[in-house]
Design brief:
The complex is a heterotetramer. By secondary structure, chain A is an alpha+beta fold. Chain A contains 16 helices and 8 strands. Helices cover 49% and strands 13% of the residues of chain A. In chain A, the strands form 3 sheets. Chain A has a 3-stranded antiparallel β-sheet. In chain A, helix 6 (135-155) packs antiparallel against helix 7 (175-200). By secondary structure, chain B is mostly helical. Chain B has one domain (84-333). In chain B, helix 3 (68-77) packs across helix 11. Helices cover 38% and strands 8% of the residues of chain D. In chain D, helix 1 (29-40) runs antiparallel to helix 5 (153-168) and helix 2 (52-60) crosses helix 5. Chain D has one domain (42-186): Rossmann fold. Chain D has helices at 29-40, 52-60, 92-104, 116-120, 153-168, 171-186; strands at residues 45-46, 83-87, 110-114, 144-146. The chains are: A alpha+beta, B mainly alpha, C alpha+beta, D alpha/beta.
């Protein structure tokens, strides 16, 4: 990498120009505006400008009752909508002290892991498309469509789910969903061989990703990076393992990590997490307990006064809901901890010194969703 | 050998059989062949891309989507020709024209079959390469004139890329010239037909280097940094609309056809083939090579700019030089 | 059901926090109900001192946020660690509406954006912040949206009309 | 009402395209029809996805709902695109970007407002909303609205087909000419 420090400031000021990887750009995964200060093709400074898809979720939360806010979490991070939906329900259940039946917990785990697989498919294949390989993107979506069919069968929507309710889930899973998931898991296992040949051993893909955008553990600590981006740098932190919630303690699965911390490591962590999610789904399907799917809950919950913070592992990192309640049916304040917000800010530390093509690669490997950052 | 050189033609048809007329007829054929070729290739590219990506590709226009490119061209004709105010008007307007001209000229020396060849120019091989570098100038002009940072980066990249890959290209073809000691493409094809053995068996390394260098020369596949969608929006033709954009498209695909045709002439024995007439073999080999180029495009990601440069200067050129050196020695000894 | 390691870490944390921030009340809270182990309530300041202790023990700063209690703001800092045991710490400090707290961005670079977001939504200006400007709302916006007196906020007594 | 077998996104029976005769429209019918036919079968949308609807737009371009069948290639630059698909919520910060993009597109351009957010602000429009513009038609003229949050990829494809029916019947051009005539008359 070109060592920026050797160029003294005088020469930098003449040769430097600003380039807007603007709100509308094929590879900014939504409306992300990266203001690059370039010297030729090497990035001197990068400043992500956000706010282009801000919708005021937190202000909306303050004038709706808890039930009315249910559709919003899925529209914050629409790639892992199911996970955010269940996260919000968990937060209110913890606040009100509602006990969720075990079958509902299992269904929540199954649907969340399916959603995580679908989100990782977009994360990894969008990264590959940022490098210029378009075919993996379409292959990845082919598998993702199967998941969307399954989740649509039980929740009715493909992307922005409102399947979770306080005290459980909306309706029970059907036999069709059960067999469909089994079939899907077998098919997905056979598909890994295709991805292995198409991308994982692709020489150009490896050369473009190796040693690009290295995030050290110190940076990760200082910037609050979590999720696959952190696990790519060698830290074994996953909320499902470190702070077990819902039914995760009952399943055996490992947390894949890589030491290098570059784009390839983050890609490999996400691909390895697909297998772990399949293991979890299989174990959950094998021991699915009978019983009710929703606890007895009053029509409008009225949590006691006080606050609580619930964290859960979304596909992008440790997301969280901090709810302050004043004892009425309207939440006083809901703060959403968006993992992409901190993951994105680490770009300003690791990007200088890379080429323009690498910026697209690093941004893709960190895998952010823009509305989750802007909330 | 050219159809007009047959002895009786000149006195039977008088002026009609003269070189000037055959040149004119040849140019007419090119003017018809090239756009048809491009239309067919764009459709094949979208169909190949579709089938590789598990989807059918264009289906609605004509039976099985055959007329899709024709409709694209008509639509682009109907588009408004936007000339952004901040552009350098003359260069902006001139660049699509200059990019197409060398693409047409490249077809003249190509030996489609023993009789069918527009003009067996005695410096045929040099003619094609010199005109192809004019195409690069027009890309630079287009990128610079459209006053857009993305197109400027794309244009500057295209100049560096073409300069870096012109040298291994020429070094890879030198052994062929040494073996047949002629620049006339017709005679090179003739030499392979007589000896029966294609030059690819004599010069496998040169063939590989030639193939890589031509893919990079025509900004295709893993080397398409000039028009890298995911980084530079659309590279140098970001600001071009309507027919001007399609002229750039036309030039890119024609250069691809010329590159594949050159590869078949140099290494795959041009029109030499057992049963079928010459031209059929020539076009079969050319279109197979074009399919391989498209196939590579839809499986490989794009390489980075410094890797592109290192690959050319540090790997391709030394190997090409060594190969040339060995060929010279072997020819001297034999 | 805290593990032994967590208990030891909590005790050690409480002691170091107590001697560095004497006037703060440190109370242990029930993780199952609240989601965090320690609840540190600061009075006059010491946010940066707490941040320095947290960084030395390799905690990450998860979020910085504020809650508008009509007459005063409550700044909330959430620290959690994943290196040794899983412990989460919530630090709150009540500040007046026009107070200017110190920024912790010198210790945690990640806080630059978190504090910019708090400024963007609440108008709390942080001192010694590298570039305090709006991050999410349009730059020319003159309003601070998440204040209780901005726009239409349904207070507790207007519950009936939202029963849809 | 028992609906058997009718696919979900078929237009309701009451939907007819009224193509009343617009007075004073002089056009070379055959050339105009050929150009319209060409424009219809080669609609190049601008890849401009804002939020969740962008994912459904990408899904429309993927193997299962493949829009390449209709000759649709997404283009990165506004200069080479005909249709702008506004897919997602429009915050105030994005308004100027959308307008500049719309102005940069060459002449025969159309706009599809995809999803409730682009039609009317969708789930995020309430009387206390400070962040978003309630609908894309407040900033750029919209030709086709596709309801849904997010609409299914088939709905987006039907939106494209609806724009194709509109274009081939020349209604859009006629409306624009009628508006221009009305404005000139008012002046």
């Amino acid at each position: 990498m070109l060592n920026i420090k050797t160029i003294d400031d005088a020469t930098i000021s003449q040769r430097v120009y600003q380039l807007n990887l603007g709100p509308q750009h094929p590879s900014t995964h939504g409306v992300m505006h990266l203001l690059l200060t370039l010297d030729g093709e090497v990035v001197v400074k990068i400043e992500p400008i956000i706010g282009y898809s801000h919708r005021g979720h937190e202000k909306m939360a303050e004038n709706r009752i808890y039930e009315q806010f249910l559709p919003n979490p899925a529209r914050m991070d629409y790639l892992s909508g199911m996970i955010f939906n269940h996260g919000y329900c968990m937060a209110v259940e913890k606040l009100c002290g509602i006990e969720v039946p075990r079958r509902a917990e299992y269904i929540r785990v199954i649907t969340s892991e399916l959603n995580r697989i679908a989100s990782h498919f977009i994360g990894t294949m969008d990264y590959a498309m940022g490098l210029g390989a378009i075919t993996p993107f379409l292959w990845g979506w082919d598998d993702r469509e199967n998941i969307l069919d399954l989740l649509e069968m039980i929740s009715g929507s493909r992307l922005t789910y409102s399947y979770g309710r306080f005290g459980g889930v909306r309706n029970d899973i059907t036999k069709e969903f059960y067999d469909g998931t089994r079939k899907f898991i077998d098919r997905l296992r056979s598909r890994f061989w295709d991805y292995e040949n198409l991308i994982n051993q692709n020489v150009i893909f490896i050369k473009r990703s190796r040693d690009v955008g290295v995030i050290t553990t110190e940076d990760a600590l200082a910037f609050g990076v979590t999720g696959p981006t952190l696990r790519g740098s060698g830290v074994k932190y996953d909320v499902r393992k470190n702070e077990p919630y819902s039914a995760y303690p009952e399943f055996k699965f490992e947390i894949p990590t890589r030491k290098e911390g570059d784009c390839l490591a983050r890609y490999q962590v996400r691909m390895a997490e697909l297998e772990q999610s399949i293991n979890i789904i299989e174990q959950a399907l094998d021991h699915l307990p009978p019983g009710p799917v929703r606890a007895k809950v009053p029509r409008f919950v009225t949590p006691p006064e006080g606050d609580c913070y619930v964290t859960f592992e979304s596909a992008r990192g440790a997301a969280g809901f901090y709810i302050v309640s004043d004892g009425t049916r309207v939440p006083y304040r809901i703060k959403v901890r968006a993992p992409s917000f901190s993951n994105l800010f680490v770009l300003t530390k690791i990007c200088p010194g890379h080429f323009l093509a690498d910026i697209v690669a690093i941004f893709g490997s960190i895998d952010v969703t823009v509305p989750e950052i802007d909330r | 050998m050219n159809i007009t050189q047959l002895p009786y033609i000149k006195d039977v048809y008088g002026f009609l059989g003269s070189d000037v007329m055959s040149g004119l007829v040849g140019l007419l054929i090119i003017a018809a062949l090239v756009p048809l070729n491009v239309a067919f290739l764009v459709l094949v590219e979208r169909k190949v891309a579709g089938h590789i990506q598990l989807r059918p590709g264009p289906m609605e226009v004509g039976p099985h989507g055959i007329l899709q490119t024709l409709i694209d061209a008509v639509k682009l004709l109907g588009k408004e020709m936007v000339t952004p105010s901040s552009t350098d008007k003359l260069l902006y307007w001139l660049s699509p024209i200059i990019v197409v001209a060398p693409a047409f000229v490249g077809f003249i020396p190509l030996p489609f079959s023993p009789l069918v060849q527009i003009k067996d120019v005695n410096v045929g091989f040099l003619l094609i390469f010199s005109f192809s570098s004019i195409g690069v100038i027009s890309i630079l002009m287009g990128g610079w004139a459209s006053n857009n940072k993305y197109s400027l980066i794309g244009a500057v990249r295209s100049v560096a890329q073409n300069v870096a890959y012109e040298i291994p290209l020429l070094l890879a073809t030198m052994p062929i010239i040494l073996m047949t000691n002629t620049f006339k493409l017709g005679e090179i094809a003739q030499a392979q037909a007589q000896s029966g053995l294609w030059f690819i068996f004599y010069q496998p390394i040169a063939a590989i280097i030639f193939f890589i260098a031509t893919t990079a020369e025509t900004n295709r596949a893993p080397f398409d940094l000039v028009e890298g969608e995911s980084e530079l929006v659309s590279g140098f033709h970001t600001e071009y609309t309507g027919m001007r954009f399609s002229l750039f498209f036309l030039a890119e695909y024609t250069n691809m056809v010329i590159a594949a045709a050159l590869f078949t002439t140099f290494f795959l024995g041009g029109w030499h083939g057992p049963v079928l007439p010459g031209a059929v073999w020539f076009f079969a080999k050319t279109y197979f090579l074009l399919f391989v180029v498209m196939w590579i495009r839809w499986t490989y990601p794009r390489i980075r700019f410094d890797q592109l440069m290192n690959f050319a200067w540090k790997i391709l050129i030394p190997i090409a030089l060594v190969n040339l050196f060995i060929t010279a020695i072997v020819l001297k000894v034999l | 059901m805290l593990t032994a390691g967590q208990k030891k870490l909590l005790v050690e944390l409480k002691s170091s926090l107590a001697e560095s921030v004497p006037e703060g009340q440190i109370s242990e809270s029930d993780y199952a109900a609240k989601g965090y182990h320690l609840d540190v309530r600061l009075q006059k300041g010491g946010v940066r001192r707490v941040a320095q202790i947290m960084l030395d023990r390799r905690f990450i700063l998860e979020t910085v946020t504020a809650v508008d209690f009509i007459d005063s703001f409550e700044l909330v800092y959430l620290y959690s660690t994943y290196y040794q045991q899983q412990v989460r710490l919530l630090v709150r400090i009540r500040i007046a509406k026009d107070a200017q707290p110190y920024s912790v961005s010198a210790i945690y670079p990640g806080a630059i954006w978190l504090e910019r977001e708090v400024y963007d939504f609440f108008g709390i200006r942080f001192q010694e912040h590298p570039d305090l400007k709006r991050i999410i709302n349009p730059d020319e916006a003159d309003y601070f949206p998440l204040l209780k007196n901005f726009g239409k906020t349904k207070f507790t007594d207007q519950i009936d009309d939202i029963l849809c | 009402m028992e609906v058997k077998g009718s696919p979900i996104c078929m237009p309701s029976k009451g939907f007819q395209v009224e193509s009343k005769e617009i007075p004073g429209v002089v056009g070379f019918a055959p050339v105009q029809d050929l150009l319209n036919l060409a424009r219809v079968n080669a609609l190049w949308p601008l890849t401009f996805g804002i939020a969740c609807c962008a994912i459904e737009m990408m899904a429309a371009g993927v193997a299962r709902f493949d829009w390449d069948r209709f000759g649709i290639i997404p283009r990165g630059t506004p200069r080479q695109s005909d249709v702008m698909v506004v897919a997602g919520t429009i915050p105030h910060k994005l308004v100027s970007t959308i307008q500049t993009l719309y102005d940069q597109m060459p002449a025969p351009k159309y706009v599809i407002a995809m999803g409730n957010c682009a039609i009317s602000g969708g789930p995020f429009s309430y009387d206390g909303q400070y962040a978003i513009v309630n609908g894309a038609d407040k900033i750029i003229p919209v030709d086709v609205y596709i309801p849904g949050c997010p609409p299914r990829p088939e709905a987006l494809l039907q939106g494209f087909i609806k724009i194709q029916t509109k274009m081939t019947k020349g209604i859009i051009d006629a409306n624009r000419r009628a508006e221009k005539a009305a404005r000139r008359a008012k002046k």
